[in-house]
Amino acid sequence: MHIFNKKEFIELNRHKCSELHYLDFNGISIVLGEKDGELYSPFSAPFGGFSCLQKKPSLEVMEQASEKLYEWLKEKNKKCHITLPPLFYDESFISKCISAMQRNGFKIDYGDLNYHFDLTEQIKMEYNARKHWNTATRNNLHLILADNKEDMQIAHNIIANNRKERGYPPHLSLEEFCETAKTININLDCFLVYADKEPIAAALVFGIEPKRSFVVLWGDNREKKEMRPMNFLALSMAEHYKSQGYLSLDLGPSSKNGIPSYGLCSFKESLGCTVTLKYTMGI
Predict the structure, then answer these.
(1) DSSP secondary structure string, 49-92?
(2) CATH 3.30.420 domain span(s) along the chain
(3) Are the C-beta atoms of 87 and 276 separated by less than 8 Å?
(4) Which pLDDT tens digit goes with each residue over 201-235?
(5) CB 94 within 8 A of CB 58
(6) DSSP assignment of 86-115, as one string?
(7) Three-class HEC string of 208-275
(8) What is the architecture, at CATH level 2, of domain 121-246?
(9) Tell me: the pLDDT tens digits for 114-165?
(10) How far apart are CA 221 and CA 229, in angstroms?
């Protein structure tokens, strides 16, 4: 079970929906949050979907669960949207989920393009990324893993300012990030990129599964973008987690509701990321 399906995480965020529904179908469970009359999994997370007590449930078990969920939703007369994890987290289980749901009343609403570093393989940058990496190193950029609240607040401020400048809504406060990590007992890593003594880029990263990390938020000081701190940050984080024996570093989707951001896709692909689909199923 990934952290976004844990009861502790869901209960921490239950105020973000009007009602919660904990459902279990013979060991296959799902939690749906109601917002504006429709049901969502997740209702406040990057992805949700089914959880299972068995390590490798059969396709028949998944079909039965999908059928019962569909019947429950029809009885409630509710629309439902279920965003599954990107395929690379557990390709076998997620593929069974998609297959079973499609044949039991659900359809694919859309598939988002999700990018991650496969840390079991050598990272292979494309020409542009290598050129930008060289620019960053010429500017003497260096990375630190923040280990105190002051540095973490600096990192959060950089990201918050970046979001504001690009017209994105505010995200969690640093206190909320720390509370989330504490409540569900996971690591919250905070990275800062410095140009000499000036912090110019940052990232907040959750350890969402053993040996898998997820970049929740990241960004740079837009006035310093020509120093290529984001290229430096992404590749330095990947090397950090690779050295720790991690399997993957998830940089998240580069599309919204199935519509890609071509520039963001190109940026992540140039870094050497692998792209997989993250499906949202619905009725």
Answers:
(1) --EESSSS--HHHHHHHHHHHHHHHHHHT--EEEEPPPGGG-HH
(2) 3-112
(3) yes
(4) 999 999 988 899 999 999 999 999 999 999 999 99
(5) no
(6) PGGG-HHHHHHHHHHHHTTT-EEEEEEEEE
(7) EECCEEEEEEEEECHHHHHHCHHHHHHHHHHHHHHHCCCCEEEEEECEECCEECHHHHHHHHHHCCEE
(8) 3-Layer(aba) Sandwich (3.40)
(9) 999 999 999 999 999 999 999 999 999 999 999 899 999 999 999 999 999 9
(10) 9
CATH number of 3-112: 3.30.420
Residue whose token pair is 């993957």: 248
129-161: burial string, b at 16+ Cβ within 10 Å, e else: bbebbebbeebebebeebeeeebbebbbebbbe
3-state secondary structure 141-161: EEEEECCCHHHHHHHHHHHHH
Residue 56 pLDDT exceeds 90: no
Q: Beta strand pairing status for 255-256 and 259-260?
A: antiparallel
